[in-house]
Amino acid sequence: MKKKIISSLLSAITVFTMFISPMSVKADGLQNVGDTANSTSTATFSVSADDIGGVTVSVPESITLTYDSTDKKYANSTSDKVYVYGNLATGRHITVATPTSTSFSHKTDDTAPDMTGAVTFGTDGTATWTNAQILAGRTIEANRVGNSIGVQVTDLTNIRLGAYESTMTFTATTVAD
Predict the structure, then answer these.
(1) Is the overall model pTM greater than 0.85, yes or no?
(2) How confident is the model at residue 150 (pLDDT cuts 50, 70, 90)?
(3) What CATH number matches the domain at 3-10+50-176, 2.60.40, 3.90.320, 3.30.460, 3.40.50?
């Protein structure tokens, strides 16, 4: 299934510098073969999300509901999932939220009443990915943690022939642990 990729860069400044300052070593005692003296220097660098990639929130590009004649409802497949993976700073996690209901409008009949759909996702419309889960999925797709999204329309009292459509918004937030 095609996925819509939403990238979020979690750092504003890219810094990659190496500092090697000259340091004097006192030459006393370095007159004879085999004499030694030690000195240290520090090399540093900073890594930002721009350097190694940020966090990706992947949501289904589309969710198709099909008719379930046994339960008399329209519902989507349980394989529709939201994934979060990438590089996230220590001490943070990501939450993704979506409303727990959505309104379906008829695509061609303006007189058709809207249909209400129930959305199940996480707990009360919010799912959380821990820092460890996000990092584990950054390079190995099999390690990516997916949270299922369910959409169904059960009250078919005023349904009309034709196609219905709804737009769902997913909001991703970086949260401190």
Answers:
(1) no
(2) very high
(3) 2.60.40
